[in-house]
Amino acid sequence: MYLTRLSLTDFRAFARLDMEVPRRILLLVGDNAQGKTSLLEAVYYLATFTSLHAQSDRQLIHFLAAQEALAVGRITAEFQRGGRGHRLEVRLILENSNGSARLRREILVDGIKRTAQEAVGFFNAVIFLPQMTRVADGSPEERRRYLNLLLSQAHPGYAQALSEYQQVLTQRNALLKQLGERGGDNSQLDYWDGLLVERGATLIFARNTAISEMERLAAQFHGRLTRQQEVLRIFYQPAYDPLEPPAGQYSLPLMASADRSRFSREDLRRGFQEKLAAVRGEEIARGVTTIGPHRDEVRFVSNGVDLGSFGSRGQVRTLLLSLKLAEVAWLKEKTGEWPVLLLDEILAELDMQRRADLLEALGEGEQSLMTTTDLNLFDPAFIQNASVWRVRQGVVSSEG
Prior knowledge:
By secondary structure, the protein is α/β, with parallel strands linked by helices. The chain is 40% helix and 25% strand. Strand 4 and strand 5 form a beta hairpin.
């Protein structure tokens, strides 16, 4: 899979951009705050329909256009997938009227309107941004979001199940709070429990499989980037765990290996249902759903060290590089297509050897877009085999 053309209208710093995208490696060079990251953000938005920077889609619209009564931010991409050409377009339509603003989004896949849940996975991309260190050392919510964005691209129905799970969770929590404060018939929860476990089992089953597969791939890349000096492990800690703890032990320890692959989706659904029934009284008292994939946790451990708590800056950055390269390989395994790889200021904090290892690994994909403020970070031979474009104040131009 690879982009052939990208067009932006009133998106972030770009009032207007229309560019053909080189097939292999594109280096976007420019000072800070010129639009390099915004360009990568636009490409990633086509894969996930969410921004890793903006609090809301409204912030994606060019700030001058957003002052008008009607503003339309647009991302349009033409790309090749499976030997066929496709077109994907997103329109962010902002209407300002009587002091209020209303935003709606339209997604067109080959000219046909789709919902985000229907369109996700049609185009695949993997992105690295400097602030992604939060995946390792941030809150569990950051790691769940990381998993959700990855799985939505590869598993049909995951995005829909996730959206429905969150809606059901909101309704169930409201009912729990009402029952705890005012009392009532607890059997009212039966309906919401059924919906929650149905969607939740889909999420847990996909995460069980994906984390095991990602660990295998990430460990390989991590070994290469550390010259086989470190061994990476990924530990999944589901809030509902189908594994029974050993006798006399309340829960599995953090570093314990656990094989949950033998559990089918139906096993997970049935077990989740039973667990909800067992903790119903506690949840009514607390007014909140205490178990389920919305409380899952993932930890990254290298040579026995939890990188999120004790990893150095360099170790965390190497972990993220390993994860991103593993994502590329995993999506290729799942979809049969190489995703587009988006790397923002990736080499700034790597030593010479890890830069060389990373640049060598990039040759395994089909298309990479990279940003930098300093071309001297790249080996001359690598630059010679890449397309170098300059970004200045929202304008992109070829260096030659």
